Amino acid sequence: MSLLELKNVYKIYGDLHALDDVSLKVEKGEWVSIMGPSGSGKSTMMNIIGCMDKPSLGQVLLDGMDISKESDKSLTNIRRDKIGLIFQQFHLVNYLTAVENVMVSQYYHSMPDEKEALEALERVGLADRAKHLPSQLSGGEQQRVCIARALINHPEIILADEPTGNLDEANENIVIELFRQLHNEGTTLIVVTHDPEVAEVAQRTIVLDHGKLVREDINENFEAQNSSAAKPAENKKTEEKKAEKTEEKKASKSTGKKKKK
Amino acid sequence: MKKRKMFLRMIFASLMRRRSRMIVALLSVAIGATILSGLVSIYYDVPRQMGAQFRNYGANMIFTASGDELELAAVNNAAALIPDEEKVGVAPYRYENVRVRDIPVVAAGTDPEGAKATSPYWSVDGNWFTGAGEMMVGANVAESFRIKTGDMLEVTYTPMTDDSAADADNVSYFTVTGILQTGGSEENYIYMTLDDMSALTYESDRVDLAELSISAGAEELSGYADKINAADDVHASLVKRVTASEATVLTKLQALVLLVTIVVLALTMICVATTMTAVVAERRKEIGLRKAIGASDRSIIREFMGEGMLLGLFGGIVGSVLGFVFAEQVSVNVFGSSLIFRPLLVPITVIASIAVTGISSLMPIKSATEVDPALVLKGE
Predict the structure, then answer these.
(1) High-pLDDT (> 70) share of chain B, %
(2) What ipTM is given for this predicted complex?
């Protein structure tokens, strides 16, 4: 049984079909990227998978449970217990420290545990920034706090919406590396992105256009990429290649081509 | 860590680390609590303050004989039934017909200190009589007899007895210390001490009536009168003219203060509701985030209500202190005397402040639960 299955899902706003007969299966432990231009239905799909919206038609099965018919209260519980969310804008509570932001997620899920929250921050390399407020952290650090918050409750799925959209190349690599670790530990990852580099590190890429699933690419080199990433020596070439791409990106950003969702 | 500890940590962090935002909300709560505390202090102190003001209008209780005669000892015993702190003055009076320059005049024997306390509106040109051989003369008598302060007067008393042989005149001499002006019938009398009256009439311990000025409300006064009348030595009656006016003015004044208090409470609620609405609007993203990561509507309500109530607590504490200062200033400037601090008003103000903040936060908090968690994903 798939961990997540969308069966002929529609989301209709008046005459607009934000999602138009989308069917998709995501297996447990899989790393899937969702790509598509603005207005293609990525956010709508994320909202439905993230239990923040319901389809107009069709079924969404999460861990065997049809969440398309659940009440709002029940969806809140599913979201809390099974889903970890990572946002492009980080969305940290600005008056809480990094560790408190992680503990907020524990607070709603079960019981706050500062030690565990600190361990999660340590895992994302922010042990020494635990007592800092979001305004005292860089964008990359804020995103890592967001990741720590998403994984603290050991969710079934981590949904990431443009997780690297506001990050520089170095922090983008750190985030991708963290995703890789999570995947290797068996966490299911669904990542919405505009960035082909971020998409291509996933096992599978789904492309949406005008609400329809138009293409599905399997990353044949995934295992190789994954293992090479784990070996620093072998990884050198990839890093060099990425550094070149960073320069290219910087150049394209400076000419006004900004990344947009 | 317990959930409650984390809850407190979050709401304290929200208030303390967002000081500039929350100071506005705190100010509105504190100002409301200040006015509330101040007005309630005044509301409860008005009877005392107004009672003191009304004491300027003369006695509000009269003792007369319940039988044939009224004795001074009975007056003192009856007066002892009234608490000392409420007794402004007791003035026993004995009236006798005497003659001055062979013309009949009414003389009143009294305790000058008691008379001064019960009739503070009496105006004396000169000095009050204080002891033996001194006399105060009413303005009408002074005018009729052309008496001036410092004059020596011969006062003659003729006892009225069945034994005509014993009806010899008693004569005493008095120095006029002052001329009394009241605008009333008191200007027709001459005044001396009770001891001088006893010496003049050879009759001690008998009085005709006693005037009392008591700083108490109408109900308490009635209670004292009933208690004294039950003892049967003295008949106590209230001076309706004074007590009724006092009760009417007090009722109206207290109603006014109550009305203003209600208006202030309503304004505070509107102010807090507006501030909380702004707070909720400002924190829509945070609410959406909390809901997105699994907060139930109940959790959101609890957290915002917790913040509101904490504001109410802080505002209430600040307000109860400032309220006393405000009421003290009003009391000193309007009534010319200090306010009595009532410790019970502190918890009452704090509880009222928390309740008002809680009630006025209900609508804004309800709107917080309606925030769509998806908005954080949309990046709006």
Answers:
(1) 96
(2) 0.82
